[in-house]
Structures are given as C-alpha cells and as structure tokens.
Amino acid sequence: MLPLDSSVRVFMVLGHTDMRKAINGLSVMVADHLDLNVFTGNLFVFCNRSRTIIKVLYWDHNGFCLWQKRLEKHRFSWPKSVQEVLELGHRELRWLLDGLDPSHVRGHPALHYKMMA
C-alpha cells in the first residue's frame, strides 16, 4: 500500500523509464539526474515507453520500497511535457492509477477560509 498522508509529495518523472531498473537504478536517477532527495519519503512515479507499467519508489523509515502496477490490456495516461518532473496531488495519483488522465479531470476547487462570518 502506498503511503498517501498529507506530508508526502508525489513526483512524476516524465518521459519513459527503462523498467528493468530496480531500486538502485531508480534511486540514482532521482538523486543524480533530477537532483531530488530520495530519502524524504516522497513518492517518485515512473512509467515505461508503452505506458503499461508504473513503478513508484519511496523511502520508508529504514529502507526503500518499490511498488509496481502493470496493465494487461490498457495504457496509462502519461503526460507529454517538456518538464523532467511534474508534482501531483494524492488524488491525481489515484486517478492516474485508476486509468484517468489527471491533467483533464476537474473536480471542485478546494476552498480555503481565514475566518468564519
């Protein structure tokens, strides 16, 4: 199960990733190529070229965890962007894993109030 509490951030690594990479290869990619701290507990999401496999790498207190989902028939809606990394919310990650395109799903916007009237 993925840790999706409010302190965890979700980073999509855009483009395609060689899914032969395991924990060591993916963690080096995050640290060296993306210049992000892999030991934060944040989720780093990778997708293969055919968009049928997603891997999620994260640090869990005393070791790395690698979570994977493979689609048997369909494809993930992976964004085509010029950025290297895109930050997602927890809902958007859930939508992505459920087969929705997070960039096109629009829910009600969050409301933030400072005082009650």
Q: In a few lines, what is going on in this structure?
A:
The chain is built from 2 helices and 5 strands. It is of the alpha+beta class.
Could you characterize the architecture of this molecule?
The chain is α+β, with helices and mostly antiparallel strands. Helices cover about 15% and strands about 25% of the residues. The chain has helices spanning about 25-35, 90-95, and strands spanning about 10-15, 45, 55-60, 65-70, 85-90. Strands 4-3-2-1-5 form a 5-stranded mixed sheet. The longest helix has 11 residues, at about 25-35. The chain starts with 9 loop residues before the first strand and ends in a 20-residue tail after the last helix. The model has no long low-confidence stretch (mean pLDDT about 85).
